[in-house]
Automatic annotation (TrEMBL):
The keyword Transferase does not apply. It comes from the Bacteria. Pfam families: ABC2_membrane_4. The chain crosses the membrane at residues 12-34, 54-77, 108-132, 152-170, 177-201, 221-239. It comes from Candidatus Agrococcus pullicola. The keyword Transmembrane helix applies. Keywords: Membrane, Transmembrane, Transmembrane helix. This is ABC transporter permease.
């Protein structure tokens, strides 16, 4: 049922296009401007300004993905859970033979599958952007960078899990979106204020790893798994305790 809802959703189709095309086009545009010597763009790129070729493109796309994709995935998950309340369809779920916690977990499963599809498509678009910009031959290092881009997208999708719980608790999409924005701000502030500690924060580790693979070890990256597991369980409990009179 959740799979069919996702396929029929104009919201998910729109978000997919915005994430895939938007990130690839923006990354390509910034890369082209940097290669042309645009001082304003180079100043905004920070440490990436010293990179070139594929390293520059994948670095820029990783920066955009860490922030932009998290917000997009949070909006998608907020819609998936929140719409049941705003559209009034939540009452019908009480009559289904499938338990409400199972439905909640199904929503997370569909979100994960969709995230994987977006990750693969975005990596292909970034590859195409690099070929259009003529950034040079595609060697093993380039493939590794594209693989990191794909993994970053998946990890970012997992980090949006709190949005599903917030949307369920607040009975609408807006609380989930607000939670996503709060997570995004916290991750950015932590990465800037305490960069040495940020690698241990699940919401910051993926972006740091994508930009500096040696700066984040496997144990720190593995902490990301805690977020979807915890919030999938918490959301399932929330859905189990839902009442029609609230």
């Amino acid at each position: 049922m959740e799979y069919r809802k996702a396929l029929a959703s104009a919201v998910l189709r729109t978000i997919t296009i915005l994430v895939v095309a938007g990130i690839a086009v923006l990354a390509a545009t910034l890369t082209a401007a940097a290669r042309a010597g645009n001082d304003q763009i180079l100043a905004q790129l920070g440490p990436l300004a010293g990179h070139s070729g594929w390293n520059l493109l994948t670095g820029v796309s990783a920066q955009i993905t860490a922030a932009g994709a998290l917000l997009a995935f949070g909006v998608a998950l907020s819609w998936s859970f929140g719409r049941e309340f705003t559209d009034g369809t939540i009452t019908g779920l009480f009559a289904l033979p499938v338990t409400r916690p199972t439905i909640a977990l199904a929503k997370f499963a569909v979100h994960l599958a969709w995230t994987g599809l977006v990750a693969l498509t975005l990596a292909v678009f970034v590859l195409a952007a690099g070929l259009i910009l003529n950034l040079g031959p595609i060697d093993s290092d380039v493939w590794h960078q594209l693989a990191r881009q794909g993994m970053l997208t998946i990890l970012t999708g997992l980090l949006a899990a709190p949005a599903g719980w917030a949307a369920s608790l607040g009975r609408g999409s807006l609380p989930g979106i607000a939670a996503t924005i709060a997570i995004l701000i916290a991750a950015q502030v932590t990465a800037i204020a305490v960069p040495g500690t940020a690698a241990w924060l699940p919401f910051s580790a993926p972006a740091l790893w994508a930009l500096q693979p040696t700066a984040v070890h496997a144990g720190q990256l593995a902490t990301v798994a805690i977020v979807p597991i915890v919030f999938a369980v918490v959301t399932s409990v929330t859905w189990q305790r839902l009442q029609l009179d609230r």
